[in-house]
Amino acid sequence: MHTLTETDSITSSDQIIEAAGALAEKKGRKIVAVAAAGDPDVLGAMASAKADGILDAVLFGDRDRISKAADTAGVDISGFTVEYESDINRAAYGAVRLAAEGKADVVMKGFISTSALLKTVLHRDFDLRTKNTLSHTAVLDIPGYHKLIQMTDGGMVVRPNLEQKLQIMENAILVARALRINPVKVAVSGAVDRVYDNIPETMSCRALLSLVSTLGLENVIVRGPLTFDAATSKDIAAVKGLNGPVVGDADIYLVDSIEECNIVSKALINFADAVFAGVIVGARVPVSLVSRTDTIKNKKASVALACLVSEYYKKTGIAGGAR
Amino acid sequence: MITSFAELAEQAKTKIAEKGVPVMGIVFPRGGKCLEAALQAAADGYIKPVVFGPKIELEKAAALKNINISGLEIIDSTTMSGAIVKAVEAVKKGKLQFLLKGSVGARDFIDNLLLPETGFVKKGHVIAHVGVIKTPRYHKLMFVTDASVNIASDADIKIAITRHASTLAKKLGVETPKAALLAAVEAIYPSMPVTMEEAAIAKMSDRGQIKDVIIDGPLSFDVAIDAEVAKSKGITNSRVAGDTDIFVGPSIETANGMYKAMVLYADVEAAGVIMGGPVPIASGFSVDPMKNIVNSIILCAYIF
């Protein structure tokens, strides 16, 4: 079997997990601070990633809740450092503080609402904000597509304006860099493949592209509007008379709305066996979250992805925005 | 209730045996897979084709591909808009039972079709694309709408789209179709306008203001398809969740992406039809393999 080298692009969910494992072996395990850790799914994911040598975790949360959740998940948590804190928000505060102090690399969402956790991440007590908005990106491994593709944003920004879309794109580009993708090819979503003056979404796509062109982003190629089929299939693109480096080879599909991202991703996950790894980017530490309906594999891929993103931030000193 | 394309083909044959072979107008084919699909459907006895398109170009393209079109009736039209006008005239005269969109871009086709001079529908009348998808992962046919016609749909248009999908589902034997208005979440948040609009439409449905179709929303995709997930997310009193027939995208981009993602990457068979006009229009995308175009034709041959 071909072993992934440190410079190879990461092209599958298995490789995300493999690369995070190799990173831990070489440079030491990333530390994940779990906010309100009394959640069986999260504890299950932490225990299995720890057993695989990917990470170590510090659990913040209520003693009873954590031990019950560990029982439910059937995992042994005696190897983890635990900071008992019965109040959910104070548990989150503790986890985020650990990351802000540089003693943890990733913040993980436990038994707490996403919005409460992110409010803590952005708290003025910590210097974790960047100039960019927080956004969620789902790295999808779709059987039949030759590489990973990020769908963003399906979880955070409801109806992004032009500036927010640009920031969401920048956030995703950092994740692509963490996956060692170069150049990064961004397809801006559309229901059609060119600008029509009677389709407002295509007009805002044009505005976005012209804004992007003023930024001089290096090794980033952006094109849009592109339909999902044109963005991911060279054959279909050819039938439509489209060519260029992005068509059929997109690394990032920058969608138009939270609904589009969420629904198209779920169609691929449920009916096309896509495995996804998700992470929230735009703060100085990546925020990881897993949900009850995730499979064991995509939970593992999600935390592994967060570890890779954290390493990229550390190595480059960049977080949340390349500008 | 028809649950597969094999069943649909069988039922279409029976219907044609009773009612006769329908005449299908092919609007502006250019020698691509649409023409081949039409010829195959004709050879299989589903339709009699009439072409509205560029005669010389077609003959050349057919010769190149070694396709015999000598027996094909061609009403020569060198432009797409000309072909549409002539085809709609034939529809109005009762000469065609339905149409097939040729190998032309969906957007350009729709924009031309809806020009007032074609007379296809009156200004303001909503037509909608409905994709029909069969995946072994779901217990019934999925009706996905609207991937191609309506750009910025307000609540009225969304209701009209849902009704068109419902009409199609009923023709395929779904007694009272269940429609999910899809969103990223299943809770209703004033800060998410899509969820507010969908909830309002669902309320209209609950009160019986919208007949013949049960509508619920907002529902996320996994809640729409999976009763277990619905339950785990606390959606226990939905009449639609877990058993959805009609998947209404909150935007054209969503429905388009959903349809194409499934056709490209999931193990599916599909068909597409534009509903709401005087006759249905079988309508595939570039992403659809020829089989899906044939399915679309058979679908129209069944429902005309």
Please, could you describe this protein's structure?
The complex is a heterodimer of chains A (323) and B (304). Chain A is globular and about 60 Å long. In chain A, 60% of the residues are buried. Helix content of chain A is 42%, strand content 18%. Chain A has a 6-stranded mixed sheet, sandwiched between helices. Chain A has a 5-stranded parallel sheet with strand order 3-2-1-4-11, with helices on both faces. By secondary structure, chain A is of the alpha/beta class. With 304 residues, chain B is an alpha/beta fold. Helix content of chain B is 42%, strand content 17%. Chain B contains 11 helices and 11 strands. An 11-stranded mixed sheet of chain B has the order 3-2-1-4-11-10-5-6-9-7-8, with helices on both faces. In chain B, a hairpin with a 5-residue loop joins strand 10 (269-275) and strand 11 (281-282).
Shape of chain A: globular
Proportion in β-strands of chain A: 15-25%
Chain pair forming the biggest interface: A-B, 44 and 47 residues
Please tally the helical runs of chain A, counting DSSP H or I stretches of 4 or more residues.
11
Q: Sheet bearing the most strands of chain B, described?
A: 11 strands, mixed
Question: Average pLDDT across residues of chain B?
Answer: 96
Number of helices of chain B: 11
What is the CA-CA span between the terminal residues of chain B? 17 Å
How many strands in all of chain A? 11
Order of adjacent strands in the largest pleated sheet of chain B: 3-2-1-4-11-10-5-6-9-7-8
**Rg calculated over all Cα atoms of chain B:** 19 Å
Low-confidence stretches of chain B: none
What about the largest sheet of chain A? 6 strands, mixed
What class do helices, strands and sheet pairing of chain A give? alpha/beta
Q: What Rg of chain A do the Cα atoms give?
A: 19 Å
In what order do the strands lie side by side in the largest sheet of chain A?
A: 8-7-9-6-5-10
DSSP helix fraction of chain B: 40-55%
- Low-pLDDT sequence parts of chain A: none
